[in-house]
Amino acid sequence: MKSKLLYYLFGILSFIIPAAIYLSNASDALGFADAGEFALVTKILSIAHPPGFPSYVFTGWLWGKMATLFNASHVWNMIYYSVFCSAAGSVLLYLTIMKILEKNETLVEWTKHSIALLTAVGYASGVTVWYWSHGVEVYAFQILAFA
To answer: What predicted TM-score, i.e. pTM, was given to this entire model?
Structure first.
């Protein structure tokens, strides 16, 4: 029997755990790759270096405009956007794994949710995903788009 409460509880955990990991390591120092360029182009709705990343620039600009109500720093707003994108990608991975595990009738419901949560958090805490998920970079958006 499917429990909606377990779906909501574990779904929320698959967002909160990665988000907490990313935020605990976040810094507004734009010290690597193209972070400075992405912070600028999302603020002024401009064009980044080729290929330009128009979806990221536009959605980042929208996020920045909405988040300005809560935080004046555009760099931090974009860091929060990266955290949101990667954590939301983790939730989608959790839901995908749950869809696969629903076919298995031998596992207890709690076990299925635990497996899906650990898979999502394991992926989200991997070095490459972690590295790009707490800075101003397009890769966190790409994680969400591919998910």
So the answer is: 0.90
Instruction: State pLDDT tens for residues 42-64.
Output: 999 999 888 889 999 999 999 99
Closest CA to 57 of 74, 76, 41, 81: 41
Amino acid identity of 23?
L
Place of tokens 């999502």: 120
Q: Which string of b and e fits 68-105 if b means at least 16 CB within 10 Å? A: eeeeeebbbbbbbbbbbbbbbbbbbbbbebbeebeeee
112 near 104, Cβ under 8 Å? yes
Q: Is 45 left (phi over 0), alpha (psi -120 to 50) or beta?
A: left
Predicted local confidence at residue 31, as pLDDT: 67
The segments of the chain whose pLDDT lies below 70 read 1, 31
> Residue 126 burial (CB < 10 Å; 0-12/13-18/19+)?
exposed
Q: What is the DSSP letter of 78?
A: H
